[in-house]
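One such given next:

>
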Amino acid sequence: MRTQFFAPLIFAVLTTAITANAITNKPPQSRAIAVESPSDTPVLAQANSEAMYLDKRGDGRTVLYVESAEGTKVTVLDVSDPGKIRRLAETELAAPSRFDFVKSLGGDNVLVRYRNGSGEAFLNLKHCKHPVLGDASALTGTEAAEKLGDSALLSASTNPAVESIVDTDPTYKVWDDSKASHPNLMAAIPGVTQRLSNEDTGTQFFLSENGITVVRRLRVEEDHKINVIWKSQT
């Protein structure tokens, strides 16, 4: 009998609380949940927004990028502390249409796809307050990309025309992306059958029918040498 009365009692309490909030025009309160809406948090009032991208940065901050104005504007919000969301910047982009954030290309680059069907581009987030839109045509066919330090990118791709027929060895490309607006191709390594890496020096070794290609990270090498000398003296 107690169970039969318990459910209606809870329903009555909830109904009373909802009615009271409606009359006083006060938002419901909870010790476990908080809802921040555009109406009471101005920084969240991003009218006509189309897409978002969440970036967890190396310095510990979490940044939210909000695309709006037919793709020509990106608002940057620091959402590291959900209770104190703040606006960092607003940047204009020369985008031909609205776009969607597709995926990270590794490091600071994000692939975006235009909704009008005109193609793809990449958004460089190295300087979070000033994202830069770049041409992604150079990366067409790229299946995977990873960062090599602060100013280089390594991508891998296969030939889509023969990929479904036979297994093909990937072509690796090394890019200098120190210029955010357009990566510069430094080398293409076709037909790679094996790849090894030395984490101490940051060196990459690529084996193909032409031999071994070595990709060096000079700053990592210098740091490693200093570390070895320091250890030898302690």
